[in-house]
Write a structure and sequence with these properties.
Elements lengths: L7 E6 L8 H8 L16 H9 L8 E6 L3 H7 L7 E5 L5 H15 L4 E6 L7 H17 L12 H21 L14
Parallel strand pairs: 1-2, 1-4, 2-3
Protein backbone atom coordinates (compact mmCIF):
# COMPACT_ATOMS: atom_id res chain seq x y z
CA UNK A 1 0.00 0.00 0.00
CA UNK A 2 1.13 3.55 -0.63
CA UNK A 3 2.14 5.41 2.51
CA UNK A 4 -0.59 7.42 4.21
CA UNK A 5 -0.58 11.05 3.22
CA UNK A 6 -0.29 13.04 6.48
CA UNK A 7 -1.75 16.39 5.31
CA UNK A 8 -4.25 15.02 2.83
CA UNK A 9 -8.02 15.05 3.09
CA UNK A 10 -10.28 13.07 0.79
CA UNK A 11 -13.61 14.23 -0.59
CA UNK A 12 -15.81 11.37 -1.79
CA UNK A 13 -18.61 12.50 -4.08
CA UNK A 14 -21.76 10.41 -3.56
CA UNK A 15 -24.63 12.71 -4.49
CA UNK A 16 -25.30 11.78 -8.10
CA UNK A 17 -28.58 10.26 -9.24
CA UNK A 18 -27.21 7.57 -11.56
CA UNK A 19 -30.27 7.97 -13.78
CA UNK A 20 -28.92 6.02 -16.78
CA UNK A 21 -28.71 2.81 -14.74
CA UNK A 22 -31.93 3.41 -12.81
CA UNK A 23 -34.06 0.84 -14.73
CA UNK A 24 -31.44 -1.89 -14.22
CA UNK A 25 -31.02 -1.08 -10.52
CA UNK A 26 -34.79 -1.07 -10.02
CA UNK A 27 -34.97 -4.52 -11.58
CA UNK A 28 -32.00 -5.86 -9.56
CA UNK A 29 -32.73 -4.32 -6.15
CA UNK A 30 -36.37 -3.29 -6.26
CA UNK A 31 -35.74 0.33 -5.29
CA UNK A 32 -34.55 3.65 -6.72
CA UNK A 33 -31.01 3.66 -5.35
CA UNK A 34 -28.29 5.44 -7.33
CA UNK A 35 -25.52 3.23 -8.69
CA UNK A 36 -22.91 4.25 -6.10
CA UNK A 37 -25.01 2.53 -3.42
CA UNK A 38 -25.39 -0.75 -5.33
CA UNK A 39 -23.10 -3.80 -5.27
CA UNK A 40 -22.73 -3.88 -9.06
CA UNK A 41 -19.16 -5.17 -9.33
CA UNK A 42 -18.43 -7.34 -6.33
CA UNK A 43 -19.96 -7.87 -2.92
CA UNK A 44 -19.81 -4.24 -1.82
CA UNK A 45 -21.22 -1.05 -3.29
CA UNK A 46 -19.17 1.33 -5.42
CA UNK A 47 -19.24 3.81 -2.51
CA UNK A 48 -17.90 1.21 -0.07
CA UNK A 49 -15.20 0.23 -2.59
CA UNK A 50 -14.26 3.90 -2.92
CA UNK A 51 -14.12 4.42 0.85
CA UNK A 52 -11.99 1.30 1.31
CA UNK A 53 -9.63 2.41 -1.47
CA UNK A 54 -9.38 5.99 -0.17
CA UNK A 55 -8.81 4.62 3.35
CA UNK A 56 -5.51 3.17 2.20
CA UNK A 57 -4.22 6.75 1.78
CA UNK A 58 -6.39 8.91 4.00
CA UNK A 59 -7.95 7.92 7.34
CA UNK A 60 -11.71 8.19 7.87
CA UNK A 61 -11.32 11.19 10.19
CA UNK A 62 -9.89 13.16 7.21
CA UNK A 63 -12.45 11.90 4.69
CA UNK A 64 -15.61 13.79 3.76
CA UNK A 65 -18.51 12.12 1.94
CA UNK A 66 -20.77 14.60 0.15
CA UNK A 67 -24.23 13.44 -0.80
CA UNK A 68 -27.79 14.74 -0.56
CA UNK A 69 -30.59 14.38 1.98
CA UNK A 70 -32.51 11.99 -0.28
CA UNK A 71 -29.55 9.57 -0.13
CA UNK A 72 -29.09 9.65 3.66
CA UNK A 73 -30.51 6.14 4.19
CA UNK A 74 -28.06 4.69 1.67
CA UNK A 75 -25.10 6.58 3.15
CA UNK A 76 -26.04 5.38 6.64
CA UNK A 77 -26.09 1.75 5.48
CA UNK A 78 -22.63 2.10 3.93
CA UNK A 79 -21.15 3.58 7.11
CA UNK A 80 -22.55 1.08 9.64
CA UNK A 81 -19.29 -0.86 9.91
CA UNK A 82 -15.89 0.61 10.60
CA UNK A 83 -14.62 4.13 11.12
CA UNK A 84 -17.03 6.75 9.84
CA UNK A 85 -15.95 9.71 7.74
CA UNK A 86 -17.49 13.16 7.96
CA UNK A 87 -20.75 13.34 6.00
CA UNK A 88 -22.13 16.48 4.39
CA UNK A 89 -25.65 16.28 3.00
CA UNK A 90 -26.87 18.86 0.52
CA UNK A 91 -30.59 19.71 0.33
CA UNK A 92 -30.46 18.59 -3.31
CA UNK A 93 -27.90 17.63 -5.92
CA UNK A 94 -26.32 20.87 -7.10
CA UNK A 95 -23.55 19.30 -9.18
CA UNK A 96 -19.95 18.28 -8.76
CA UNK A 97 -18.47 21.76 -8.37
CA UNK A 98 -20.85 22.72 -5.58
CA UNK A 99 -20.17 19.47 -3.71
CA UNK A 100 -16.41 20.01 -3.93
CA UNK A 101 -16.61 23.63 -2.75
CA UNK A 102 -18.98 22.63 0.08
CA UNK A 103 -16.49 20.03 1.35
CA UNK A 104 -13.48 22.30 0.75
CA UNK A 105 -14.97 25.01 2.98
CA UNK A 106 -15.46 22.52 5.80
CA UNK A 107 -11.94 21.15 5.38
CA UNK A 108 -10.44 24.65 5.31
CA UNK A 109 -12.06 25.45 8.67
CA UNK A 110 -10.59 22.29 10.21
CA UNK A 111 -7.19 22.23 8.45
CA UNK A 112 -6.27 25.39 6.50
CA UNK A 113 -3.07 23.82 5.13
CA UNK A 114 -4.69 20.60 3.88
CA UNK A 115 -4.13 19.04 0.50
CA UNK A 116 -7.48 17.83 -0.85
CA UNK A 117 -8.06 14.89 -3.19
CA UNK A 118 -11.49 14.35 -4.71
CA UNK A 119 -12.84 10.89 -5.57
CA UNK A 120 -16.11 10.09 -7.35
CA UNK A 121 -17.88 7.15 -5.72
CA UNK A 122 -19.52 5.80 -8.84
CA UNK A 123 -16.39 4.64 -10.65
CA UNK A 124 -14.96 1.15 -10.72
CA UNK A 125 -11.16 1.04 -10.40
CA UNK A 126 -9.72 -2.31 -11.42
CA UNK A 127 -6.03 -1.61 -10.82
CA UNK A 128 -6.29 -0.06 -7.38
CA UNK A 129 -2.60 -0.31 -6.47
CA UNK A 130 -1.57 1.54 -9.64
CA UNK A 131 -4.29 4.13 -9.16
CA UNK A 132 -3.33 4.78 -5.53
CA UNK A 133 0.35 5.02 -6.43
CA UNK A 134 -0.55 7.76 -8.95
CA UNK A 135 -2.70 9.56 -6.39
CA UNK A 136 0.11 9.39 -3.79
CA UNK A 137 2.58 10.77 -6.34
CA UNK A 138 0.26 13.65 -7.21
CA UNK A 139 -0.31 14.40 -3.51
CA UNK A 140 3.45 14.59 -2.92
CA UNK A 141 3.80 16.95 -5.90
CA UNK A 142 0.99 19.24 -4.69
CA UNK A 143 2.42 19.31 -1.17
CA UNK A 144 5.68 20.64 -2.66
CA UNK A 145 3.81 23.01 -5.02
CA UNK A 146 0.60 24.03 -3.17
CA UNK A 147 -0.31 26.63 -5.80
CA UNK A 148 -1.00 23.79 -8.26
CA UNK A 149 -4.28 22.09 -9.02
CA UNK A 150 -3.93 18.66 -10.60
CA UNK A 151 -6.64 16.71 -12.39
CA UNK A 152 -5.94 13.00 -12.41
CA UNK A 153 -8.48 10.99 -14.31
CA UNK A 154 -9.10 8.24 -16.76
CA UNK A 155 -9.59 9.44 -20.29
CA UNK A 156 -8.71 8.45 -23.77
CA UNK A 157 -5.07 9.32 -23.71
CA UNK A 158 -4.88 10.43 -27.34
CA UNK A 159 -7.68 13.01 -26.94
CA UNK A 160 -6.27 14.35 -23.68
CA UNK A 161 -2.76 14.59 -25.08
CA UNK A 162 -3.98 16.25 -28.26
CA UNK A 163 -5.88 18.85 -26.25
CA UNK A 164 -2.91 19.33 -23.91
CA UNK A 165 -0.62 19.94 -26.90
CA UNK A 166 -3.04 22.44 -28.46
CA UNK A 167 -3.44 24.29 -25.15
CA UNK A 168 0.33 24.31 -24.56
CA UNK A 169 1.08 25.65 -28.07
CA UNK A 170 -1.61 28.34 -27.74
CA UNK A 171 -0.22 29.39 -24.35
CA UNK A 172 3.32 29.53 -25.73
CA UNK A 173 2.16 31.70 -28.68
CA UNK A 174 0.30 34.07 -26.32
CA UNK A 175 3.31 34.36 -24.03
CA UNK A 176 5.69 34.88 -26.97
CA UNK A 177 3.41 37.62 -28.33
CA UNK A 178 3.52 39.31 -24.92
CA UNK A 179 7.28 38.85 -24.66
CA UNK A 180 6.99 36.48 -21.71
CA UNK A 181 8.96 33.34 -21.11
CA UNK A 182 6.87 30.19 -21.44
CA UNK A 183 6.23 28.52 -18.12
CA UNK A 184 5.25 24.93 -17.43
CA UNK A 185 1.65 25.11 -16.23
CA UNK A 186 0.99 21.38 -16.37
CA UNK A 187 2.59 18.39 -14.74
CA UNK A 188 2.31 14.98 -16.30
CA UNK A 189 2.35 12.11 -13.86
CA UNK A 190 3.06 8.65 -15.24
CA UNK A 191 4.04 5.36 -13.75
Amino acid sequence: DPARAPRTWAVVLAGGEGSRLRPLLRRLFGDERPKQYAPLLGASSLLRQTLDRVGRLVPAERTVVVSQYDHARYVDRELEDGAAPHVLLQPENRGTGTAIVYAAHMIRRLDPEATVAVFPSDHYIREEDTFLAHVAEVVRFVERRPERLILLGAARRSLVEQRFEVDRRQQERREAALGQQSGNHFARVRQ
